[in-house]
Amino acid sequence: MSATVLSPHLRASHTGQGGLSNSSCQTPSIAFGRLRRYQSKSLIRRGNMRLTAPARSHSFGLLRIAEEVSVVELDDTPSRGVVNGQGDGKGTMYFSENQLGEILSKMVIVVPCKDEQLSVIRDVISAIPTGCLVILVSNCPPQDYPNQTEMLRLLGQHGRQLVAVHQKDHGAAAAFLASPLSILVDPTENTIRNGKGEGMLLAIALAAAFCPARRYIGFVDADNLHPGSVTEYCKAFAAGFAMPQSAAGEDIMVRLKWASKPKLREDGSFDNVDEGRCSRVVNPWLNKLFTASGYQPSTTADGATVPFVTTGNAGEHAMTMGLALKLRMAAGYAIEPFHFVDLLERGLLMPPSPRAPLEKTNGVINGAGGFKNDTVPPPRALDKPVHVLQVRTMSPHYHRATDDTHIRKMWAAGLGSIYHGLAEYRDSTPDSEDGAISELRDKLDEFARDNLHGESGEKNVKQELPSPRIYPALEGIDLAAFRHQLEGSVKNGSLRAYGLVR
Ligand code: GDD
Ligand code: MG
Questions:
Q1: What is the mean pLDDT of residues 369-373?
Q2: Is the CB of residue 223 below 6 angstroms from any atom belonging to ligand 1?
């Protein structure tokens, strides 16, 4: 019987499962001490990398989005330095082990997980560069959680710095209830709502509250079946932050586009598709959104249009912690496309001064749920530039297969976050920029009616785009109070930390 899960809620479900031995509880860890702030042990630095040099950026007020760059070498000789015009005529940039290691040692990598096999999650975590602090935010069945924390405990013995929290931790829910993000908590269960976006929000708050020295936060899915790609993802995040335009103090987001997604055919062969089924729908609409906001496509020397937004659904992305606290986030799988919507609205469309509360439903655009929280602070216009970098990796992305219903829900949530997120601009005059957005919304609506069908996929039941719940920025929460509240989860809940020193 395990004693590693301390939440009464979780322990009850675990009774009788066997699983972990008592000896596992005796290993000293700060999980059994009073939790203050996590600090890093000595740094282990690794990783060279070469990318194509930063391409053109397009500005939308304070939002700057760079055209995609690509990883061209996963390891390289440090002596070459920056090299221009190699082979394909493009400039490339070399990032040294020290440069990337320095950034990785200031990075938290969040691994959201739900029902993946333990060995798959372990391999993903093992592939994260050791300088990074890892937060496993789990929404697994309660009986599986002790095995996950035991796996982390073992990894922590080899120098990794690891934190685990369960999304259904009552202490975590209580910490949010006392904050402007109380809408993250499902009032019927008194736990944080289900959803990938919700788990990521919990992890960001945890990182900000307990690891204030970590400047960057990245996200990698737990269902990755090719762990080597995870090492590349983290290094690519660091390379993005090391790009020359990523000046100190700037708000930066690095979004990854996988080289391909291999699809296994029945005859055993692989098709390497360039874009996933969801991205194929969401990216073109984001491009239309930016075109409606003044984007002029670039062309290559031979006249081809340079792809612009290629990372609408980038599950693998990273950002400066300041930006993570500033962004409003969408529920579930709408979280990634909504980044663009929030940044466009707050960087370009919104007037510079803060709007009065309640003018828009306080950041909550959930029509379906219909709830409102009058205490939620309204979104504010950006006060400094945000740079979005898009990086194409060398590794393909192998993950668990999902069915068409899942994919349809995912793109519908993404498009819904554009449609409802920009509802405020629906009455604008047609010849203004806002008017173009209003036209785009009409077309989105038409697309949804033609392509979205009922839950069971019946062809004749046409639907409107869903309105994903939007959470206000985390910057509104009192991190000291949040930390204080969550300290109880070390003893009485699911919060664990391994390989860390106080
Ligand atoms: N903590 C937590 N809570 N994690 C969750 C939850 C949840 O409620 N739901 C899903 N996850 C985790 C999964 O366990 C997995 O590790 C990761 O989030 C991605 O979930 P998948 O279900 O595998 O998503 P997907 O493969 O269809 O989509 C992924 O790629 C898209 C781009 O193609 C996601 O990362 C999407 O967000 C992304 O847009
Ligand atoms: Mg997946």
A1: 35
A2: yes
> How many residues in the chain?
502
Q: Which of 172, 176, 167, 109 is nearest to 476 (CA)?
A: 176
Percent of the chain with pLDDT over 70: 78
Q: What is the pLDDT of residue 456?
A: 55
Is the pLDDT score of 35 beyond 60?
no
| Ligand 1 pocket residue status of 58, Cβ below 6 Å | no
**Is 398 close to ligand 1, i.e. is its CB under 6 Å away?**
no
Does the pLDDT of residue 201 top 60, yes or no?
yes
Average pLDDT value for the chain: 82
DSSP assignment of 412-462, as one string?
A: HHHHHHHHHHTGGGTTS-TTSHHHHHHHHHHHHHHHHHHH-B-TT--TT-B
Q: Does residue 247 register a pLDDT over 90? A: no
Residue 203 in contact with residue 184, Cβ under 8 Å?
no
**β-pairing, 386-392 with 63-66?**
parallel
- Measure 13 CA to ligand 2 centroid, in angstroms: 27
Q: Whose CA is nearest to atom 35 of ligand 1?
A: 315
- Does 421 have pLDDT greater than 70? yes
Query: How far does residue 399's CA lie from ligand 2's centre (Å)?
Result: 5
Residue 150 near ligand 1, beta carbon < 6 Å: no
- Is the Cβ–Cβ distance between 392 and 259 less than 8 Å? yes
Q: How far apart are CA 158 and CA 41, in angstroms?
A: 12
Closest CA to ligand 1's atom 8? 195
pLDDT at 363: 37
User: From the CA of 168, which ligand is nearest?
Assistant: 1
Ligand 1 center from residue 473 Cα (angstroms): 21
For ligand 1, whether the C-beta of 438 sits within 6 Å is no
What residue has token string 């290691």?
101
- The alpha carbon of 351 and the centre of ligand 2 are apart by a number of angstroms equal to 38
Higher-confidence residue of 301 and 328: namely 328
| pLDDT tens for each residue of 11-23 | 222 222 322 233 3
Pick from 262, 253, 268, 225: nearest CA to 325: 253
Strand partners, 58: 65
Dihedral of the CA atoms 151, 156, 162, 166 (nearest 10)? 30
Q: Is residue 340 very low, low, confident or very high in pLDDT (cuts 50, 70, 90)? A: very high
The gap between the terminal CA atoms of the chain, to the nearest Å, is: 29
313: Cβ below 6 Å to ligand 1? Answer: yes
Q: How far apart are CA 70 and CA 78, in angstroms?
A: 19
